[in-house]
Amino acid sequence: MRNILIFIVLCLLGFNAFANTSERLNQAAFAPQVRIDNQPLTLKSQVVFTYLWADVYAAALYTRPEQSPKQALRLNSNTRLELYYFRAIDRDDVIKAAWTTLEKQLTTNTLEKLRSEIDRLHAQFTDIRPGDRYALNFDPTNGLSLDINGARRFSSPNTELARAYLGIWLAPSGLSDELRNTLLAGK
Fold first, then answer.
1. Which residues, at least 6 apart from 107, have a Cβ–Cβ distance to it below 8 Å?
2. What are phi and psi of 46, to 5 degrees?
3. Each residue's pLDDT tens digit, 41-69
4. Which one, of 91, 114, 92, lies nearest residue 102 by Cα?
5. End-to-end Cα separation, the chain, in angstroms
6. What string of DSSP letters covers 113-133?
7. What would the DSSP string read from start to end of 117-186?
8. Where are the alpha helices (DSSP H) in 1-154?
9. In the predicted model, is pLDDT for residue 7 greater than 70?
10. What is the dotted CATH code of the domain comprising 31-185?
11. Which of 19, 67, 72, 103 has its Cβ near the most Cβ atoms within 10 Å?
């Protein structure tokens, strides 16, 4: 009897987690299509990032309609990573997490080469409030741009910066393997 009760509780918890994810993605309300520098991009995947049982943000990945997320990364094609935040986060904590991940992923030489551009990008960050949207846009011609709540706050033509910074979410040894795998799997 005890095993049956444990099984029922686990099933209910699993259902609630699924329902919560669905509700969270509805709350994030990612557009099915966006235009970045006149290039249409289609929503390919979305996922809720949870840390210590707390939903932190929903992430959505957009690529050109004819490309899968993996193809877009391999071909260095137009990509948008959009984050919708559920919780308040101090900007210094975001910057610290970014540096920790970049230091795991990149060589010391690459980090030093990109440091001034990363610092310039981080200077645009603000304390995050629930409902805020951050979007990183990559265009092979124009490099990386950052939109915060729909306003362009940063741009750099440095494609190496774009690959490195998007790698925080999309490259191996990033913030979360589960998040990365879900985003790159597509729908």
1. none
2. -150, 150
3. 999 999 999 888 889 999 999 999 999 89
4. 114
5. 39
6. HHHHHHHHHHTT---B-TT-E
7. HHHHHHTT---B-TT-EEEEEEETTTEEEEEETTEEEEEE--HHHHHHHHHHHHSTTSS-HHHHHHHHH-
8. 2-28, 69-74, 91-105, 108-122
9. no
10. 3.50.70.10
11. 72
d(C-alpha 144, C-alpha 159), whole Å: 7
Given strand 151-156, what is the order of strands in its sheet? 33-36, 39-51, 54-63, 79-85, 133-139, 143-148, 151-156
* Segments making up each domain of the chain, as ranges: 31-185
CB-based contacts of 77: which residues, under 8 Å, 6+ apart?
63, 64, 67, 71, 140
Tally of residues, the chain: 187
pLDDT of residue 12: 33
Residue 60 identity: A
Mean pLDDT of 22-30: 91
